[in-house]
Amino acid sequence: MNKLSGTGLVIASFRRQRYTWVDVLLVVAAVLTFFFAEGYLALAALVVVMAVFALSLDLAQGYGGVESLGHAAFFGVGAYTAALYALHVSTEPISGLLLAAVIAGVVGLVTGFAVLRTHGLTQLMLTLAMATLLLELANVAKSLTNGDDGLAGYDISPVFGLFDFDIYGHTAFVYVCVVLALVYALLKKLVNSSIGLTAQGIRENPVRMRMLGVPVERRLWVLYTISAAIAGVAGGLSAQINRIVGLDALSFTLSANVVVMLALGGTGRLYGAFFGAIIFVVLSDRAAAIDPTNWLAVLGVVLILIVRFAPDGVAGWLAKFSEKRGAK
């Protein structure tokens, strides 16, 4: 990745994340999609769910420097939790989504003890092993998860008892957008707090931060747990709007996809998750519609071009462009 040098790097690393014209642009895009792209609301809802998922990984990786190839573990836990809750307890969506966040957060809390004691390749392999173990557990526990056949046949009640999930996807799209806005606002607050700012310091130089008296392990542990809970929210949203959960919710492919989304959008800026999710999901859908066999090649070419010409992702390129405009 391109690095700023000297003072510029320090300033870029610790700059507070404020609401900008990019946020306004994203809100306008969501409104226009709702009113003028009704035939694509299901695809748009998937983009929003993936944006929530990418935000969760950006919090851990982009701000805390925690590398992960198994973030789908938390997505899958949230998805199965929401589905099982709807099947056996209540079809009310808000409580199901909150429970998905809590259970995924608990899994992050427990696994964080092991994951955060390692670094680099070891950390990557440990997160991958954790997700693989959960995948096998879900496959074996057929009486609970239905194994390869997946969980289906559950209903989701209208949101607040008023807004039914219609076949056209209007309620689902608004529902996931509202949840995304709440998650985004929460993360803006978090990354600008002492926890978020010290996490960025830990990412840059953990030794120095430890010498300054910062409880490095505890801060990363909190960040990782919150990241897991948000990934659980994404999984819960997916289970509720699609009304089916399969083993692919815990797969390595999903973990790899969200890493690619962040590579496309850019890490450490939050809104990079939006750009990455939009590019990845829309491009994958259109490429697969044109050529179901070789559609991955198109995605690969785009990823190569992004890495070559915008190594900090689309968000990084936009930030540099804005800085140049400001300088002029």
TrEMBL record:
Alphabetical keyword list: Cell membrane, Membrane, Transmembrane, Transmembrane helix
Coiled coil spans: none
Gene Ontology CC annotation, any one: plasma membrane
InterPro entries (alphabetical): ABC_transp_permease, LivM-like
Membrane-spanning intervals of the chain: 43-60, 72-88, 94-116, 167-187, 220-238, 271-289, 295-319
GO MF term (any one): branched-chain amino acid transmembrane transporter activity
Pfam family of the protein (one): BPD_transp_2
Domain of life: Bacteria
Principal location class: membrane
Membrane topology of this protein: Multi-pass membrane protein
Compartments it resides in: Cell membrane
Name of the protein in question: Branched-chain amino acid transport system permease protein
Native organism: Eoetvoesiella caeni
